[in-house]
Structures are given as structure tokens and as C-alpha cells.
Amino acid sequence: MLVRSPSACPSGLPGGEAVPDARGALQGGAWVGGEMPRGMCYEVWFWLDDAVDAEVLEGWKARKAALSQEMRDAGIRGSRKKLGDLEDELAECFEHCVAGVLRRSGGCCALRTRAGDMARGFESVPGAVVYGWNVEPNFVRVWLELSGECGVDALIDGWKAVLPDVAWSPVCHVRGVSDRECAAALRSLSAAMMEAGVANGSSADAAGEAAPEFRHVTVLLEESVDALLPAEGKVIVDATLGGGGHSELLLERGATVWGIDQDPSARRAACERLARFGSRFRVLAGNFRNAVAMLREQGVDSVDGVLADIGISSHQVDTPERGFSFREDGPLDMRMNPEAARSAAVLVNEASESQIADWLWQYGEERASRSIARAIVRARETAPIRTTRELASIIESVLPRHGKQHPATRSFQALRIAVNDELGALECLLESGVNLLKDGGRMAVISFHSLEDRAIKQFFDKVSRPEVDRPEWPEPRPNPDYCARLVNRKPILPSEAELARNPRARSAKLRVIEKVFPR
Question: What are the tens digits of pLDDT across the range 383-411?
């Protein structure tokens, strides 16, 4: 989204050429100053054809027709209170039946990728002063005032004609609003965009430099996608969307994909990469530990496949500002979700010595955990530890470098896992993901270190044994957790060709199970 300051433009539109963000997608525009509406205005909603279920639309249209007839009768009788109540009921009906559905199903990026064209269309179609607009993934809202003979319906037809290849719904929603309501809506839109960092450019820094391009080399691509058996009509969840590499191949093979990621830069990159697949690709913002809840909010109760590529992306490692690596100096951050409360700096500067030592031992298997924790606490007494290089130097003072691996590697891994509660999130995904699968559905999980692989292996073993046995039992008993079979008993590893292309894949392991209901 982009907020543009108005200029002295005869039509009253925000003036000047639309300036897209670094990815070229204008998502919205609104006044942030200047003259505001002074007469009767309209709020217009129009959306994609498949954004709202046909039965829901028919129900809304029928109720709308009935309420409109009552409003006409009330107007003839001069019953102003009744007319006002009916107008409120009509607005509530739209909000409940249509608007709520459109907001919740915000995964298809068909419009956001064309938002620049859409915005230019608002300016090119004569007959209205367009004060503001908001382009969402599958619907558009516009606030306007008529300025000529052209009616609202003709305006909407003109805007739709700007994107003739988009499958627009034949119905739309038009609501008359006062100038004050229109101004309030525009202020709200402008404030929301500014809160999201739009006023300064969500992909640019204060100096106007574009954010680095999202780069990530997909690991075990063919192997993991093949394991999920994607096909037309199948629904697959990519629980670690990243740059969209796995999702792209799943979509190319006909599947519908729900992508989940807590990193906004990853979601943005994936949306741009996969926009060509239209409504078959939908993205959800959040941690994959909440995958089931997020999908159920979208009306998805079961799927044919779940894919998870656990760990850190190349983009996160290679972006110093994210604070994951000590190769280049950067803030000590390590949050996969930049909006999360606790950064690595908070943990390092506020946690007790024993807690830091426990993290380094449990999550990094660092033998010198207590010595490193002691050195960290001693250093922070002089000044807070703020950067990755500072922390790496402290660790190196305890563990001098020997061999190729930097002595801070295990400690950085441990702190990253602690900051993001990665093992806790993985446990939630495994438990909920297998319950989400249909009979015959598959779960494929890629891990990159022994802690992750051990947790995945143990869980898959637990749910794939028809019976369990204990020494104190006279005979094996049925396993209450049994619901799956192992597709591969040993993990699938990267090929020599892949390792030659991407050395970072050397520690990757893929394990797969298939859901089978006990007979």
C-alpha cells in the first residue's frame, strides 16, 4: 500500500504518477491532507467472482432486495426513523454476509499484483472525484463523489474494463455516505497504512533505498513435492512458505496451496512470485504452530498434504538487519516474526546466567554453555550487548577458533531457537498437522539439525506403530496414537548435484508419513 500526498489536480485526485514500492505493487491510496469531500459521497465494494460463495451472494441479494423495498415504502410514508433503521440493517447484512467473508479470505493476490493498473483506472475513467481506494487481495473499496452525468454503475463498469482479464463478480455493493463519513473512512485508511509503515514505504528505508530482494534456494524441492503427490483438486498446506519455491512446484502440478509464514518479506515475495496462479494460491500470516486454527477460520477443516521446511531461510541469514548471522555485523535480533516481542538482545541482556546456559546446552548442544553464559553476563555488566559481532566476539573469547566452524555457530543456533520457540512450534505443527490430514494425505517435513530431526523421527514413529509394547505388559497393546504409516523409513537426503549447487543443503533431511485411519 502507498499513501501519496495530494497535489493541485483539477479532478481532485491524488496527483502525480503512482509510485509503486520496490515490487511495483500499489495496494491503496488515500488523501493525507488537502481538500476533503463536501457533498454526498459513495463507498463502493467490488470483488472477484470466486471470492464469495454463490449461495451466500444469493442470500444477500434476496435480503437486500427485501430491505430496499421496505426502504422505498418507508420513504413514501415519510417515516425517517424507520428508514434510518433499515439503512443500518442493510449495512449490517452486507457486513455479515459479504464483507466479513472478503476480509477473512484475503489470500489470493490476483488484485494486489495489478493494483497499479487498478489505481490508474480510477483516474482515467471520467465522471467522479475519487478520494481514496483500498486494493485488497480479492476485493476493492473506493470512496468517491460523482462529478458528472455518469452514474456509479457506469463508473464500476469502466474500472472493471481496465482489467478485462480479471474475473470480476457481476454484483457489487454501493452505499451512500455523508461527506463526514467519507472523510472519516479516508482518515482511518490513511492511519492504517501509516501504522503498517506504508507512509515511509514498507520495502524501503528512511533514505528511500529498496529492501533487499528476497532470495532463498529451495532445498529438496523435487523430493518433497513428489512425496506429497500433488494433483488437480488436492489442497496442500505449505506451512513454511518462504520465497514460495515448494509452493510454486505444487501449484504447477495442479494443487491448491495455502501458504503460511510469519515473515512479511517472505509473504510479499511469495505473493509476487505466485500471483499467476490466481485463487489456487492463498497466503496466511502467522506462525505454523497455529496452522489448524488459521485454516479453520478460512473454512478449511482437512487437507491432502502438509509441507514444512523447518529452519531459517537464506534471505534471513544474508540480511544483516535481521540479526541472524555474525558474518556481517547487525542488530542482535533473530526474530522470524519482526513484530514478536522478544529479540535475541532481550534474551542475552535480561535472562539469568543459568537460563542462558540451559538454552545453549539444550538447543545448541554447546559443551561450553556455562562458560559462555558466564562471559555474556560479565560483558553485559559493562554495557548491553547490542550487535551480532559483539556477541560473537564474547563467545570467541571463551572458545578460540579451531577448524572451519566459527565457535559462535552453536550458540547463535540455540538463541535463535529460543527466541522463536522453534521446537515448541514444531511440536504443535506435528500434532495438529497429522490431525488435519485426510485419509491418504501426506505430511513431509524437512529438518536441518539433529534436535529437529530427532523430534520429527520420534513423532512419526509414535503415530506409525499399530501396537506398543512395554516390558511390564504381558503382550503388545493397540497404540492409541496410531494413525499413519512411514513413507520412508530412512530420511531422504540431498543429492550430490544439489549439494554442488547449494552447500547449505548438506544437513537437510526429509521424512514423510501418510495418514491411515485404523481399520
Answer: 999 999 999 999 999 998 877 788 999 99
Reported as type and span, the H/E element at residue 237 is strand 235-238
Instruction: Give the CA distances from residue 511 to residues 228, 252, 447, in Å, rounded to whole numbers and listed in that order.
Output: 11, 23, 8
| Helix, strand, or coil (residue 225) | helix
* Nearest residue to 197 (alpha-carbon basis) of 18, 338, 6: 338
What DSSP string describes 17-62?
-----TTS---EEE-SSS----S-EEEEEEEETTSS-HHHHHHHHH
Max CA pair span of the chain: 91
* Angle CA 441–446–226, to nearest 5: 50
Q: Are 52 and 27 in contact (CB under 8 A)?
A: no
The residues that bridge with 37 in the sheet, in sequence order, are none
Report the predicted TM-score, pTM, of the whole model to 2 decimal places.
0.61
Give residue 12's Cα distance to chain centre.
35
**CA-based nearest residue to 18, from 2, 32, 34, 33:** 2
CA-to-CA distance for 238 and 219, rounded, in angstroms?
14
Mark 224-237 as b/e (b = at least 16 C-beta within 10 Å).
bbebbbbeeebbbb
